[in-house]
Amino acid sequence: MKPTARRSVLESPWYWGYVFCAAGLVGLVLMGPKVLERQVQEERRFQGRQRAAEKETGAAPVTPMSTQGATRLNLRPLFTLLIVGFLVAWSMVWWHYWRPRRAG
Fold this sequence. Notes:
The chain is mostly helical. The chain contains 2 helices and no strands. The chain is rod-shaped, with a radius of gyration of 24 Å.
């Protein structure tokens, strides 16, 4: 019997998923603080418009203002998605290419 030629790991879509998730995580770690800073600015602008509308109606403003540590939107879901994708893709690459195989 002729042994089958093994495909290169670079031909695997799991490998590329792993690489892109890793790059996304690195980018998110590096750019996360700037993105959060921008998010706080955007939320405070929106909340300022809400508070102005509340004042126009004569009601006391009740809209809380966002701070650096407390925004309505954060990066946690994106981190979670990328970490899960990274782990799943890495485990699939390991399973198909590098796991120890039984002789037989």
